């Protein structure tokens, strides 16, 4: 979490973004994921600066998926920060989310990390369900 917080603080007042790499443990009653690495990416979101929103370049997404596979990891999800806002998904987050992965959001206010929450898109795409962070 310290690395994640560092990325969020370094990007502030803009959003940081990247991927969560690791392994799924489906042997339990409910699936758990163990994040073992972060893959920070450049926020290529177009617009005036500072920007609210994030985008990862398609070639970077391809590179991170290929590298994760080669290292025996899975892309478990993605992270980004919400500068001067809470760690709940926005309407843009909902519109751009895909199924089967986690979305970890770090809230940064006034240059301080104040909250971390993780979310998973519902199968009907109507919203997110919160995941427990351990």
Given helix and strand content, the structural type is: alpha+beta
Principal-axes shape call: globular
Overall pLDDT metric? 91
Please state how the strands of the largest beta sheet are arranged side by side. 2-1-3-4-5-6
Q: What is the percent of helical residues?
A: 10-25%
CATH architecture: 3-Layer(aba) Sandwich
What is the assigned CATH homologous superfamily? Cytidine Deaminase, domain 2
Task: Kindly state the number of beta strands.
Answer: 6
| Integer count of domains | 1
Unreliable stretches covering 5 or more consecutive residues: none
Radius of gyration: 14 Å
- Compressed to H and E, one letter per element, the order equals HEEHEHEEE
